[in-house]
Design a protein that fits this description.
about 180 residues, mainly alpha
Length: about 180
């Protein structure tokens, strides 16, 4: 599994970069309308889902649990498509939609981190990104009356932290691949 993950480190880096860019855009335009937030979120989740799906299927020959990453990708793609097809959804529906996506994604990332704990040293980054995803989802459910600006800032902060951790893990895996090539 480590060999496969390190070979496709760039997919994690792509997911992380998309998350960081999304987070920065959310802070640059704090007065963002909910409609624009819906479109930004939909595009981000769609890109993230496609990257996860590709990563999952690319690991299917080396890893019997490739379906966890692929399932995370399917959830992301569905969330992105539904968000883009129905951009006029209400703020509360969007809030719960984002919350459900974050919780499901977080749980799947925790599962992956637990599975990787004996194979790489940086698995804590994936586990922490999973916890951050879960905390975002629970926070959105517990505080649904938060204003649109607070929602934008929460999602922006989450995206930057999540993306930064994925980029860290990607380069950690890239270095694992280089070490493996030197020893081969």
């Amino acid at each position: 599994m480590l060999r496969s993950l390190s070979r496709y480190w760039w997919l994690l880096a792509l997911r992380g970069a998309a998350a960081v860019i999304f987070g920065i855009l959310a802070f640059i335009w704090p007065g963002l309308t909910l409609g624009a937030l819906v479109i930004l979120f939909g595009v981000y989740v769609l890109i993230d889902g496609v990257a996860s799906l590709v990563a999952g299927f690319s690991h299917r020959e080396e890893n019997g649990r490739w379906w966890v990453t692929a399932l995370e990708g399917v959830v992301g793609i569905l969330a992105g498509v539904l968000t883009l097809v129905y951009p006029g959804i209400t703020a509360v529906l969007l809030l719960y939609f984002i919350a459900a996506w974050a919780i499901i994604t977080g749980v799947l990332e925790l599962v992956a981190a637990i599975r990787l704990r004996e194979e790489i040293d940086g698995e804590w980054a994936l586990g922490l990104s999973g916890l951050i995803s879960i905390f975002l989802g629970v926070g959105l459910i517990v505080f649904p009356s938060a204003g649109a600006l607070a929602l934008v800032w929460m999602i922006g902060t989450y995206a930057i932290l999540f993306g930064g951790l994925l980029i860290y893990l990607a380069f950690k895996l890239r270095n694992e691949d280089k070490l493996e090539l030197k020893h081969a």
